[in-house]
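Hi everyone,

Forwarding the result from last night's run.
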Amino acid sequence: MNTQMLKGKIVESGITQEAVADAIGMNRCTFYRKMKRKGNTFTVEEMNKIVQVIPLSREEAVLIFFTS
């Protein structure tokens, strides 16, 4: 997962990581911990929610979640 790109898209969207965590129903500490671990522990359901909250295009989602 490309966490740097995800962080950039979150900033571009004008919201915070904390707001994303709240919107997907996750504790902000858990969200930060998952980001620190390079996103490897996000579930598919969580990824889908993130895509909708930010929002991300299909291409952006693939680049963020399915590249090393």
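Residues 34 and 41 are 6 Å apart (CA to CA).

Cheers,
N.
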